[in-house]
Amino acid sequence: MCELQIAMLEKGVEPKENIRRDIMGENIRDVESDSYRNIRDWSIYRDYMNGLEYALTVFNHMKNKNRR
């Protein structure tokens, strides 16, 4: 994530406001069930990984386009 942020800053992409804790409700953030917590955390992790994979694909496309 840090590498992505640095690359965006180098390309002049203005970062949006940081996400605040209140975006996730208390009922989702503070869960008793380990199973539910694991599913929640895996879903968040999966979405971040998909986002990073997409960003890498875009950067590779831009890099290859500039070589031509």
Which residues sit in consecutive blocks of at least 5 with pLDDT less than 50? none
**Strand elements, count:** 0
Name the average pLDDT.
85
Class from secondary-structure proportions:
mainly alpha
Question: Can you characterise this structure?
Answer:
This protein is an all-alpha fold and 68 residues long. It contains 3 helices and no strands. The longest helix has 34 residues, at 34-67. It is elongated, with a radius of gyration of 17 Å. It starts with a helix and ends with a helix. The mean pLDDT is 85.
How do you describe this structure in short?
With 68 residues, the protein is an all-alpha fold.
Provide keyphrases for this structure:
68 residues, elongated, single chain, mainly alpha
List the helices and strands and how they pair.
Elements: H1 2-10, H2 26-29, H3 34-67
